[in-house]
């Protein structure tokens, strides 16, 4: 009790896991740099319910409903660096117009947010399976709020590939050639926790690995190889926003979907 502590309220998708991983990395890094450094001592909330109870102890509604996000300037420089570069969280204050008007405690108690993500069904995988794919999406409570078939340009196909694929020129060429070989079907999907749910349904990018894990994973059912694996899905919320802007610049058909509008603010 003789020294002050720093209390932060942080916000992002999958916040609890990402914060725990970030704190673990920071602690391990400090241990390697110098044994003489004092270890980072942290206490973090593990559930939304605990978060509410702990936030009430330290913050009031007025602390979160504000138009000024400049409170970072009151923190030590090294703390700012860790929070902004290592944890990469968005703060509750000053994040967007919606945040200014909403209560922290109301937000935490509302449950999973309705989000959008992008599913691209690769050439050859959708022409004979569209009905079954749409049925599976309906069973998983996804709403289709955008749909179009496209012939991908090489630059667009390249932007969808991971950094690992781009490291091998032969693999990169195989992926780009396949993605541009015919029409692909692009769907914008909406449901609570849409990004993670879709990634979990698709499974690993290698269909053989997906088959070994669970034969009902979509890539296990429709994939042939790591190149012709049936599907591309946005791997994060940020990538989903990028993909929506790329494939649906004209907007979406859902009146309640404000993702693109909010990202423009």
From TrEMBL:
Pfam families, per database record: NDK (PF00334)
SMART domains (UniProt xref): NDK
Source organism superkingdom: Eukaryota
Signal peptide annotation: none
One MF term in the entry's GO annotations: kinase activity
SUPFAM superfamilies: Nucleoside diphosphate kinase, NDK
Identification of the protein by name: NDK7 kinase
